Amino acid sequence: MPDILRAALIPTDRFTLEPLGVHHAADMVSVLAGTAIYQYIGGQAPTAEELEKRYAAQSIGSSPDGREAWLNWIIREQGRSIGFVQATVETDGATSDVAWVVGEAFQGRGAATEAARAMVTWLRHQQPPVRITASIHPENTASASVARHLGLTPTGRFDEDGEEYWEDSPPTGA
Description:
This protein is an alpha+beta fold. It is 27% helix and 29% strand.
């Protein structure tokens, strides 16, 4: 079995993507406290205790069976948490499913696009996946815009939650 890919610090022009740790839960409670965030992704704002449990599980870095690397980063702007990006990478490198969430107070400034682009670029330099994918609610125009900036296109296929699968074209030579 190949070594599991691990999240590393990723700088961008305006942000730092910091590998997720349980200690981020306290900061992220207020970032994720808005209600509009959950309009398309479902759920509700987590408590500090819920985030601590979630982050403890996610920061392990892989699925229990070892078939997926779980890569999670907190988006930080001048030391302040503003959201997160994540990737679930099949250990065979065939697919990397990506997602992003930016707190309501920090939306509309291109943070999700810049952070997601940095994550995808980093992924391609570490272990080039054949395909980058994302699942996006059909009415979530902001996430659709981020996906387009990443070079993803809608497939017309939907998951059980009604989200549409988006993907890029496999790199040539892959």
